[in-house]
């Protein structure tokens, strides 16, 4: 049985961040919690040298595309409910 792969890319603004060190601390916490809670692969993929913006890429694999869409929806809601961020753009790709 073939698996389905979903890629969620989230570009976000992190208001109130005063340094790259603070940004990295927050992102590392977010990444570790996402990996643990949703069993996904997560990486900061762009805007590493920008204080108040970040881009995370999140990958999930499942045998069902519908289950992947549900998981991605949970992740999108979780990100916005757990952290003081503004999502600028998020994209879902089926790989």
Q: Which features would summarize this protein structure in a list?
A:
single chain, alpha+beta, 4-stranded antiparallel β-sheet, 39% helix
Structural class: alpha+beta
Biggest sheet overview = 4 strands, antiparallel
CATH C-level class is Alpha Beta
Q: Report the uncertain regions.
A: none
Gross morphology is: elongated
Domain unit count: 1
Q: Helical amount among residues, as a percent range?
A: 25-40%
What is the strand content? 35-45%
Strand order of the largest sheet: 2-3-1-4
Rg (CA only): 13 Å
Order of helices and strands: EHEEHE
CATH superfamily: TT1725-like
Gap between N and C termini: 16 Å
Mean pLDDT: 93
Count helical runs.
2
Describe the protein's architecture and organization:
- The chain has 95 residues and is of the alpha+beta class.
- It has one domain (4-94): Alpha-Beta Plaits, CATH 3.30.70.
- It is built from 2 helices and 4 strands.
- It has helices spanning 20-38, 65-82; strands at residues 4-13, 41-46, 53-62, 86-94.
- The protein has a 4-stranded antiparallel β-sheet, covered by helices on one side.
- It is elongated.
- The mean pLDDT is 93.
Write a short abstract of this structure.
The chain is of the alpha+beta class. The protein contains 2 helices and 4 strands, in the order βαββαβ.
Chart the SSEs and their pairings:
Layout lengths: L3 E10 L6 H19 L2 E6 L6 E10 L2 H18 L3 E9 L1
Antiparallel strand pairs: 1-3, 1-4, 2-3
């Amino acid at each position: 049985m073939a698996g389905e792969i979903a890629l969620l890319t989230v570009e976000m603004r992190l208001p109130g961040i005063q340094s790259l060190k603070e940004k990295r601390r927050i992102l590392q916490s977010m990444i570790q919690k996402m990996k643990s809670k949703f069993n996904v692969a997560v990486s900061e993929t762009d805007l590493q040298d920008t204080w108040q913006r970040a881009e995370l890429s999140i990958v999930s694999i499942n045998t069902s595309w519908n289950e992947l869409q549900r998981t991605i929806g949970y992740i999108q809601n979780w990100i916005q409910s757990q952290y003081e961020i503004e999502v600028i753009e998020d994209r879902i790709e089926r790989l």
